[in-house]
Known about the structure:
With 122 residues, the protein is mainly alpha-helical. It has one domain (8-116). Helix content is 51%, strand content 0%. The chain has helices at 8-22, 27-38, 54-62, 79-93, 106-116. Helix 3 packs parallel to helix 4 and helix 4 packs across helix 5 (106-116). The longest helix has 15 residues, at 8-22. The radius of gyration is 16 Å and the shape is globular. The N and C termini lie far apart (38 Å). The model has no long low-confidence stretch (mean pLDDT 88).
Amino acid sequence: MMRADIDPEILKRELLEYHRRNCFKDANELLEFIEAYWKLRIPRARVCPEHPPPAEYIVDSFFEEVQDSVCWANRGGGKTLLGALATWLDTVFKKDCATKILGGSLEQSKKMYQHLTGGGDD
């Protein structure tokens, strides 16, 4: 069997450019892109009936089903990471979108910046 050595960074860049040209047809395609590009699997299932899963926040934010939202989770529950992801998606895929970070503290702002630039620790 013949194996082609393909640079994963080239594949990643091509995946990004494909979606910049074509966007995403639905929530599933968006979440699959996030998993492939960021290696981040965002929970889709509800654990409690009254609590939406994290994927719902990302999808609703990206497709602008909501204009404002509040993320309420335990400390270390991924709120800053998901906020950075939602911000990155808007900045990369939406025309004329810019990013400014305003965290609850300087430490949180730095953490979000690290997530946005690929240096996060979550």
